[in-house]
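Structure ticket #2291
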Amino acid sequence: MDTKFNKPKGFGEILDHTFSLSKSRFKDFFRILLLLMGPLYLLEAIVQLASGTSFFRAVGTGGAWYEQMLSSFEETGTLDSSSLGADVGVILVGLISLILGPVAEAAILFAIDHVRRNEEYTVGSVIKQAFSRFWPMIGSSILFGLIVFAIILVPIIIITLVVVIGVEIHPVLSILGAILLFLGCAVGVGLLLTRWSFYFGSVVLDKESPGMAKSWRLTKKRTWPLVGLYLVFYLIISSIGFAVQMTFGIILGNSVLLSIISNIATLFTTLIFSVGYSVMYLDLKLRHDADDLKEMIDDYNLVK
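Resolution: structure written out below.
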């Protein structure tokens, strides 16, 4: 067993282990994502080319170079038959990626579990393992998505009612109350989603569907550190995505090449998040199993 998986890890240790695994196993993890998501991104590029989007550099009208670049993005939003076809193609690619994306993440999770056990694996073998859990993953993900939709929609409705009713009574107090209510709901929603978010690991590794109850048990007393880790990963991923879009967008405009570069950056950030999620889940399992063992020992001592 990999010694780094032997003991519970703190906040910084999880981040360190994530980047260490991402670096040492980068080739395998990136190949998994490239094999599953690469064809979709290629299809997206072909659709964009067929719709008339420039490959190397797309510029619009305007005098200065920055005006031309900005107008290239604005012109893409105009409605004509070619842009409509491109939009439909991109939407289809996005829908398919929602299906294959979890498979890629599951394959990385299986690969890291093999690393934890010091077992040999191949890219093909872990992808095959991921597909063996395809339907439970899809079903559980749909259920999780419905739960997310519900627990976000309810606070929105409540906050809207508070604002609409409160404006008639006292506009300033109603707005302040709505802001406080929004912040409280945001924290509550974040905590709930974190408690349930490890359903995916339960479905993939432990073969428990839908995995919500297992996730709830695993995250007991670890919710706030997990929220912090999610925020750190979000900031890292957002920063990389923003930097790529701004840097290459200035040079290339809204071109096919920019889309390809952005998609490659997405593969890289998905790799980091998938590894981080796997490390967090395996750390939770280690903590939970250790707690179960302690309870068994305590029960045995009481019986004696």
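Closing remark: Residues 77-82 have pLDDT under 50 and may be disordered.
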